[in-house]
Amino acid sequence: MTNMSAAAAGPNATYNFKVVLLGEGCVGKTSLLLRYIEDKFNDKHLTTLQATFLNKKININGKRINLAIWDTAGQEKFHALGPIYYRNSNGAILVYDITDEDSFGKVKNWVKELRKMLGSEIVLIIAGNKIDLEHERTVPLEEAESYANMVGAKHFYTSAKLNQGVEELFLELTQEMVERFEQNSQTDLNRTQRVLVVDDEAPVQSSCCTGSKTN
Ligand code: G3D
Ligand code: MG
Predict the structure, then answer these.
(1) Ligand 1 atom closest to Cα of 71?
(2) 193 alpha carbon – ligand 1 mean position (Å)
(3) Which of 25, 105, 117, 165 maximizes the CB count within 10 A of its CB?
(4) What is the domain count for the chain?
(5) Is residue 198 part of a domain?
(6) Is residue 153 part of a domain?
(7) Do residues 106 and 127 make contact, with C-beta atoms less than 8 angstroms apart?
(8) What pTM value is reported for the model?
(9) Does residue 41 fall inside a structural domain?
(10) Tens digit of pLDDT for each residue in 110-135?
(11) 25 CA to centre of ligand 2 in angstroms
């Protein structure tokens, strides 16, 4: 189960989404987050950031969205990231370094684990980071994109260093989470409507319990 919440379904709804950053150590997860939130790269702040989340408030078409974006304190380097980190996530950004094939393998492991534990409700984005090092690429472009396609994830290329693709990635993720939330609400509504038979001709009753009240 994910933890989607919207204060109300309407123009004034506020959506609260949890997003996790996952991927091998040193692929640039923290750098992408700091670029997105503070528009900084290689700041001193980078090494002191602890495993918590940073908040970002955005507005899309009048919808207010609060993103809680979780980053690790480097536990992934010791293979110590468990379900407690990603539970209740609405979205995950799976980051690899385009110059490091092993890091792409790690992304595939994460996709398997997340699909197994959270099903298809979670929105997945795969990010090939460090595209400023294109000349050192070892992960083939077509392979990464067709893999993403196959597992129902969007693929983005990013450079936290040069600020490329970062804003676009977070925007797409957020839009997909909103869509997913609205589809789920619609499904719930359809389910309710299927069992709620409305007869236009019948007089409107003031209480559903009329006739059955005993007190
Ligand atoms: P992590 O949080 O996934 O462990 P970090 O990764 O954000 O700590 O980044 C690891 C290293 O990669 C850092 O270098 C960082 O500057 C570098 N890096 C992050 N994003 C990019 C990018 O887009 N391009 C390039 N060229 N480097 C990037 P150091 O040297 O500080 O370890
Ligand atoms: Mg980090």
Answers:
(1) 2
(2) 51
(3) 165
(4) 1
(5) no
(6) yes
(7) no
(8) 0.84
(9) yes
(10) 999 999 999 998 999 999 999 999 99
(11) 7
